[in-house]
Write a structure and sequence with these properties.
Length: 563
C-alpha cells in the first residue's frame, strides 16, 4: 500500500488506485480527505503537489478550496469520480455576484471554515462527512440537530483537513472513535423556524422555502445571509452587547421565524430585540447589514423604518424636577437597559425607582434629560445574602407582590423597602435569572400592606412594548401579539392604562396561585388551577389564552380561602 508522498523526489500519481464517488451532502474538501485516507496517504501533501500549491498548514478544507484556483480536470482524474469534471464542477466554490457557490446557492465566503466539524450521530448512520458542517453559522447538524464536534474528545486537538485518516477517528491521537461521543441536541422553541434557515442552503433538503412577496425575488443565499445577520443581532442583545457573536440555534430559530412570518413576525422580533443605543441611532440590524446585498438592504431598511417610525416612549416618571421632554427613544441608554435587565423590571418601573430616589440612575445624562434628581444610593445586587438552596418558609418576591394586588403593582415602594433592608430578601444562588426572579422573602405582611396602601408610580399613558407587556400580563410574546391583533389594545399600541384594565377584567392561573401562596394555602400547579377553573365553567377571554373573567376567578378563590 502507498505510504504517502511526503518527499518532493517522489513523483505524484495521475490517478488514485481506489477511485471515490461523491456521497449526498459531501463537499469537495470531504471527498478529497476521504480519497487520500482510503488510498493510504498519511496527509494531504499530495494535493499540494498535484495542484501546484505550496505547503498549507491547515490542509485542504472548504475555505481553502474556495480561495484556490486549480485545474479541475486534473483533480477529477486524480480522484476517479464517475462523472469526471462534472462531479467536481458541481462542488466547486465558484465566485459569483453575491458570494461563493455552495451547491447552487451563493453564500458569503466567510461562512466556510478551514477546520473540520462532525456529527457523531450522523457518522453512526453513514461514515461520510457533510459540507454543511463547515458552515460557520451552523453549530449543529441540520438533520439530527446534534451539536457539532470540532475537537477530539480524547486529546482535544482541533479537527483539521491536513492529516488524512478514518473520518470517524481522530487523526492526531488515533484513539477516539467519534461515534462513541454523541453530542447534546439543540433545543429551540420553533423547530420550523430553525429548519427554514438550514433548508435555505442544505443540499440534501427536499423542501422549498416559501417567503413573502417582498422577498421572493431574492436568492436563497441572500435570505440565508439576512437570517444569520438577524440571528447575530438577537444573540448580541441576549449576550449583553458582545460584538458579532456566533448565532445560536435558538437565535437562528427566531430569525427564521421572523423571516418566514415576514412582515408581521419580523416586526415583532425587531421590536423585542431593539438594541441598547444612544438616541437617534439606528437599530443594530440596520448597521449590521454589510453582508447583505444592496437591493435586499433597501427592503429590510424600509421595513425597519415602518416598524420603528415614531417608536418613542412616554416615560412620564412624575418627577417634580423634570426639565426635559418625556418622550424619548426606548433604547436610549445602555446603562439603564442593562440595570433593568438585571433587576427584572421593565424600564418604566425602573425609571420610577430613579424618580422616587430609591436607587441612582447609572446614566446621569439620561436622567437629566428626564429631570430625574441625583443623590440616591446605587443599586448593589451583591449586598443581599445568597443561598445555594431555597430556604424553607420563604416566598418569591414576585409571587408576594402579584398575590397581594391584581393590578397597578407599586414596585417602586416595594423595592424601596427591599433596598433599605426593611424587607428582608434572600437570593437563590447560583442563578442565571435576574434579581427579582431570584429574590425570596418572609416579609409577606409588609409587602401586602404596601400593596394595599399604594399604587404604581408609572404614568397610565406610558407606552410599553411587547416584551414589557409580557412581564405585566405574564404571558408569552406571541400571546401579547395575538391580543394586539384582536384589538384588545387601542390604536395598536399598549399603554399601562390598557394593561391595568386587562388585569382588572381578567385573572390568570398564575395570579390565583400567587394569591394562594400569600394566603398560606399550599397551591396547585398552574395547569391544575386552569383545569379546575374550566371544570367550574369559568369564562375565558376571546382568544382562549388561559385568562378568565375575574368574577369567576374570584369566586373560585373564595371557595378555597374565603376571601
Amino acid at each position: 500500500m502507498t505510504v504517502g508522498f511526503e518527499h518532493p523526489s517522489v513523483s505524484e500519481p495521475k490517478a488514485l488506485a481506489i477511485p471515490v464517488e461523491p456521497q449526498p451532502g459531501e463537499g469537495l474538501a470531504d471527498i478529497v480527505f476521504r480519497a487520500c485516507a482510503e488510498n493510504g496517504f498519511h496527509d494531504l501533501w499530495i494535493i499540494n503537489r498535484l495542484l501546484g500549491k505550496h505547503s498549507i498548514k491547515q490542509g485542504w478544507g472548504h475555505s481553502r478550496f474556495a480561495r484556490s484556483d486549480f485545474d479541475v480536470k486534473v483533480l477529477a482524474d486524480f480522484l476517479g469520480v464517475p462523472n469526471g469534471v462534472a462531479d467536481i464542477e458541481r462542488l466547486m466554490y465558484r465566485k459569483g455576484k453575491h458570494g461563493v457557490n455552495f451547491f447552487g446557492v451563493e453564500i458569503s465566503g466567510i461562512e466556510l471554515i478551514a477546520t473540520r466539524r462532525i456529527s457523531p450521530l450522523s457518522l453512526r448512520e453513514k461514515p461520510f462527512a457533510k459540507a454543511i458542517w463547515s458552515i460557520r453559522s451552523l453549530s449543529f447538524d441540520p438533520r439530527t440537530k446534534e451539536r457539532l464536534l470540532d475537537r477530539c474528545p480524547e486529546c482535544s486537538s482541533v479537527l483539521q483537513y491536513r492529516i488524512a485518516g478514518d473520518i470517524c477517528r481522530c487523526t492526531r491521537c488515533g484513539i477516539a472513535d467519534f461515534r462513541d461521543y454523541p453530542q447534546a441536541l439543540v433545543e429551540v422553541d420553533d423547530v420550523d423556524g430553525l429548519d427554514f434557515v438550514t433548508n435555505l442552503i442544505d443540499p440534501e433538503t427536499q423542501s422549498v422555502c416559501r417567503v413573502h412577496d417582498d422577498l421572493k425575488n431574492f436568492g436563497t443565499g441572500e435570505i440565508f445571509t439576512l437570517a444569520t445577520t438577524l440571528a447575530r443581532v438577537i444573540q448580541t442583545e441576549n449576550s449583553g452587547g458582545s460584538r458579532r457573536p456566533s448565532p445560536t440555534a435558538e437565535s437562528l430559530s427566531l430569525a427564521g421565524s421572523a423571516i418566514k412570518g415576514w412582515p408581521k413576525k419580523f416586526a415583532e422580533v425587531v421590536e423585542i430585540y431593539a438594541p441598547n443605543k444612544i438616541p437617534d441611532q439606528n437599530h443594530t440590524l440596520d448597521s449590521s447589514l454589510y453582508g447583505v446585498t444592496a437591493e435586499l438592504k433597501k427592503v429590510v431598511r424600509k421595513e425597519l423604518a415602518t416598524v420603528l417610525s415614531g417608536r418613542t416612549r412616554n416615560y412620564d416618571v412624575k418627577s417634580q424636577a423634570r426639565r426635559a421632554a418625556t418622550r424619548v427613544k426606548f433604547w436610549s441608554s445602555p446603562a439603564v437597559m442593562e440595570q433593568a435587565s438585571k433587576m427584572g423590571l421593565p424600564v418604566i418601573d425602573v425609571l420610577a425607582l430613579y424618580a422616587d430616589r430609591v436607587i441612582e440612575c447609572p446614566d446621569r445624562r439620561y436622567a437629566e434629560r428626564l429631570g430625574i434628581p441625583s443623590g440616591a444610593p446605587p443599586m448593589d445586587f451583591a449586598a443581599f445574602a445568597s443561598h445555594r438552596k431555597k430556604v424553607s418558609g420563604l416566598v418569591s418576591v414576585l409571587d408576594a407582590v402579584w398575590g397581594s394586588k391584581s393590578s397597578r403593582h407599586p414596585w417602586s415602594r416595594v423595592m424601596e423597602e427591599v433596598v433599605n433592608k426593611r424587607i428582608g430578601v434572600s437570593i437563590l444562588s447560583p442563578s442565571s435569572k435576574n434579581f427579582l426572579e431570584s429574590a425570596y422573602t418572609a416579609d409577606l405582611k409588609r409587602i401586602r400592606s404596601i400593596c394595599e396602601a399604594h399604587e404604581s408610580a408609572v404614568d397610565p399613558k406610558a407606552i410599553v412594548n411587547v416584551r414589557e407587556a409580557k412581564f405585566y400580563l405574564r404571558m408569552g410574546t406571541g400571546d401579547v401579539g395575538a391580543l394586539k391583533g384582536q384589538g384588545y389594545f387601542k390604536d395598536d399600541i399598549i399603554t399601562m392604562e390598557q394593561i391595568w384594565r386587562f388585569q382588572d377584567e381578567f385573572i390568570s392561573p398564575f395570579e390565583i396561585r400567587a394569591r394562594l401562596i400569600v394566603a398560606g394555602v399550599k397551591p396547585l400547579s398552574v395547569i391544575q388551577i386552569g383545569a379546575r377553573l374550566q371544570a367550574a365553567g369559568a369564562k375565558r377571554t376571546l382568544l382562549d389564552l388561559h385568562r378568565y373573567h375575574r368574577d369567576d376567578g374570584e369566586q373560585y378563590l373564595f371557595s378555597i380561602i374565603g376571601k
